[in-house]
Write a structure and sequence with these properties.
Chain A: Keywords: Kinase, Signal, Transferase. The complex is a heterodimer of chains A (about 350) and B (about 270). Chain A is α/β, with parallel strands linked by helices. Chain A has 15 helices and 14 strands. Chain B has a single domain (about 60-265), classed as Orthogonal Bundle (MetI-like fold), CATH 1.10.3720.10. Chain B is built from ten helices and one strand; from the N terminus they run ααααααααβαα. Classes of the chains: A alpha/beta (about 350), B mainly alpha (about 270).
């Protein structure tokens, strides 16, 4: 009997741990972020007390948590362990949105403008990739970049072989003699393209505005707690203003971010040079309202569907609906799971936070 | 008075008690899955039983849209091939070196320190080096498994060979046998069962190294698929793959145990 009760208890605990996620009015929130040039401001905003200042202003608590594994942080968010998480536009569509978690892109932080690239050894033209084995993190934005690159020179994925290679190991892999085509992102990209005989043949600056870095929050949580959206947006733009300032405080902030991302000021600024940061809210609002965003998301969802990333239930690229500012949508309007919402960025632009 | 430690379950009782924890886990899973799916029908974390069965059938019977392969079988074939090479080469090396070390003091003096040092290297720490030296292909994956398995087998078999009673070796020598004949007729028949036993113990680590190698760089394999679909949380693929790997590993263990019983009936303990 004793054994049975123990087991029952264990079973109940398991159920409790994996119970349903519910959006309720609450006071404390958790946001996940991981190391990447465009997301370093979150770490600094937390360390410098900027997040706390804004959370206090709206009477809530916000815990900003750094996660060492990017995909794991998105999975944790999707499973309900976090109220928000940083991620790219493609991952936002294919992981939480395709998993049925209604998600809102609260802040459009930047787009990759050269941070992701295709590197070939012994060739300077992307066309030479034909017939090669290409090492990359399969099904990531690298894969998307490669697909867009191949399209631009009239090739398709059938003309190459994709080898899934972990991002932590891609630099070591690229050094192997038989590896001659690599797709990756910074800071690894800088290492890979510095290898002897290696040339950058295509990068995200060739498809500007398509690989976008976002802060995504759970739509139901945001709707029930507008204070969360206001506090996060306020903290973000205060940090970015500090980061962009050409004075001692700005330099100190950039140095802190450089150190936190494991490089020095020069290394961090070279990464910033290939990142199109939206330092002020009006720039981000304009980008969110540009019809080009619809075109980008159309490419992204087509790629995602073709690679099976929209999940089992998806019968077409329309399965998961995407909403944009101004009431425009892509795909199934009855199943909108990813929302680009510029209303909080607009409040920041109007000084209404 | 009956003490708890003296109460033994009957055959049926043991079966019920053995199945009970597994059944409870399954029930806990189903309750959790139901609750999450009620809140979000597209939830990917704990897919329903129907989804699991559907996906498994699709993986096992339908060609993949992109590659045209039936994924479960191509992945299984690729992984089993790597595992067979890795474990096979380790078994041959481990047996030859181990027996030589146990039987011939000169070999032991030469190789024992080296093997001891090699067996202390965590194989996964070598992976980046293996990639650079051997490339990203099959060879580095097989060598990784070898690094994890062979030194253990060498040390285990050296120990087993050294444990053979001295009297037997002396007796064989008085009957005129040379070292080679003693190895062939006295030592090998007694250490072969230990090899099979050692292989059973190393299957767990061998799978671990296989999956680790496939997770880092591959175009197919069971570990590759799990780490690939992890990117978009396809638990409906991951869970059946984990169950399949468990089943394969269990079947291998049972097969080796049965072979040992059949080939070496003179060994008392097969620790079934």
């Amino acid at each position: 009997m004793n054994r049975l009760t123990t087991l029952l208890l264990a079973a109940l605990l398991t159920v409790g741990l994996v119970g349903p996620v519910q959006a309720e009015p609450k006071k404390d929130f958790r946001i996940a972020w991981s190391i990447y040039v465009g997301w370093m401001p979150w770490g600094h905003a937390a360390d410098a007390g900027i997040v706390k200042k804004w959370a206090d202003k709206y009477g809530i608590g916000i815990d900003v948590v750094q996660i060492n594994d990017y995909v794991e942080s998105i999975n944790q968010y999707t499973a309900g362990a976090f109220d928000g998480c940083v991620m790219t536009n493609m991952d936002a569509l294919t992981i939480p949105a395709a998993g049925g978690v209604d998600s809102t892109a609260l802040i459009v932080g930047d787009f990759s403008n050269g941070n992701d690239g295709v590197v070939l050894k012994g060739a300077t033209d992307l066309k030479a990739i034909k017939g090669r084995k290409v090492n990359l993190v399969e099904l990531s934005v690298s894969h998307y970049l490669l697909a867009r690159g191949l399209e631009s020179v009239g090739l398709s994925e059938r003309d190459i072989t994709v080898v899934n290679t972990g991002d932590a190991d891609i630099v070591a892999a690229a050094a192997a003699p038989e590896v001659d085509a690599i797709v990756t992102w910074n800071p690894q990209l800088a290492e890979v393209k510095a290898l002897p005989g290696a040339s950058l043949v295509f990068d995200s600056a060739d498809i500007p505005g398509e690989i976008i870095d976002l802060l995504v929050v759970n739509s139901a949580t945001l709707a029930a707690n507008p204070a969360l959206g206001k506090a996060l947006t306020g903290a973000w733009y205060e940090t970015l203003a500090l980061m962009a300032a050409q004075d001692a405080a700005g330099k100190a902030a950039r140095e802190a971010m450089a150190k936190a991302s494991g490089t020095d000021l020069a290394g961090f600024e070279s990464q910033l040079a290939t990142t199109q940061m939206f330092y002020t809210p009006p720039e981000a609002v304009a980008f969110s309202r540009d019809p080009a965003l619809l075109r980008t998301m159309d490419y992204v969802r087509t790629f995602s569907f073709a690679h099976g990333l929209l999940g089992e239930g998806a019968r077409s690229a329309d399965a998961v609906g995407i909403a944009f500012p101004g009431g425009k949508t892509l795909g199934d309007a009855g199943n909108v799971k990813l929302r680009f919402d510029d209303s909080y960025m607009k409040m920041a632009a109007d000084g209404a936070l | 008075m009956t003490r708890l430690l003296n109460r033994r379950p009957g055959r049926a009782g043991a079966l019920v008690l053995g199945v009970l924890p597994l059944a409870l886990l399954a029930v806990a899973y189903l309750i959790g899955s139901d609750a999450r799916l009620a809140a979000n029908p597209n939830d990917k974390l704990l897919p329903s039983l129907a989804t699991l069965v559907d996906t498994t059938l699709r993986l096992a019977t339908q060609p993949d849209a992109r590659s045209g392969d039936v994924l479960l079988w191509t992945d299984t074939a690729a992984s089993l091939q790597r595992l067979a090479w890795g474990v096979g080469v380790s078994a041959v090396l481990g047996f030859a070196v181990g027996v030589a070390m146990g039987l011939v003091p000169l070999v032991r003096a030469t190789l024992a320190p080296l093997v001891a040092v090699l067996s202390m290297i965590p194989p996964l720490a070598l992976l980046p080096i293996l990639f650079i030296v051997l490339g990203l292909g099959e060879l580095s994956k097989i060598v990784l498994i070898g690094f994890g398995v062979a030194p253990f087998l060498m040390r285990d078999l050296a120990q087993r060979a050294a444990e053979i009673p001295r009297e037997q070796l002396i007796k064989a020598q008085t009957l005129g046998a040379n070292t080679w004949q003693i190895a062939l007729r006295v030592v090998i028949p007694q250490t072969l069962p230990a090899l099979v036993h050692g292989l059973r113990l190393t299957l767990g680590p061998a799978w671990l190294f296989l999956i680790a190698a496939e997770a880092i760089a591959a175009t197919d394999g069971l570990g590759y698929r799990i780490f690939l679909v992890r990117r978009y949380m396809a638990m409906d693929v991951i869970l059946p793959y984990v169950a399949w790997i468990t089943l394969l590993a269990y079947a291998m263990d049972r097969t080796l145990a049965a072979l040992a019983r059949r080939w070496f009936p003179w060994v008392e303990d097969h620790s079934a």
